TrEMBL record:
Residues 101-116 have a biased composition (Basic and acidic residues). Residues 74-116 are annotated as: Disordered. Keywords: Membrane, Transmembrane, Transmembrane helix. The chain crosses the membrane at residues 43-66. This is Uncharacterized protein. It comes from the Bacteria.
Length: 116
């Protein structure tokens, strides 16, 4: 697995787990306010647990971001990296007169005078 991906995934899982605590606590507070009843005793605890989980998720995601974007870190080889990519850009690589033109495609119809 690429560097930092585990931290991103752990952060996302923690964010999902926090949805088990925070909405319930907010609902308890809102219900108590709307019905003029006392707030249930577990509501502040649920809110605190949910906020701690959200902070842990933010720390995991930040750690993953730091691992993948740090300056001076060893860059891992990526199979999508093409060492010849700059040569494929116009202006790089060999002189166009020495290379076959990109228009010379065997599937293109030829003009009567032999040009593509």
């Amino acid at each position: 697995m690429k560097l930092g991906i585990k931290q991103y995934l752990a952060g996302l899982v923690l964010l999902f787990v926090s949805t088990l605590f925070v909405p319930q606590a907010v609902s308890d507070f809102a219900r108590a306010e709307s019905t003029d009843t006392p707030v249930p005793a577990e509501a502040p605890l649920l809110l605190a647990i949910g906020l701690l989980i959200i902070l842990a998720a933010a720390a995991c995601i930040g750690w993953g971001y730091w691992l993948t974007h740090r300056v001076g870190g060893a860059r891992t080889a990526n199979p999508e990296d093409d060492p010849d990519e700059p040569l494929l850009r116009p202006g790089y690589g060999a002189d166009p007169s020495t290379e076959a033109s990109w228009r010379e495609n065997p599937l293109r119809r030829r003009d009567p005078d032999g040009r593509a």
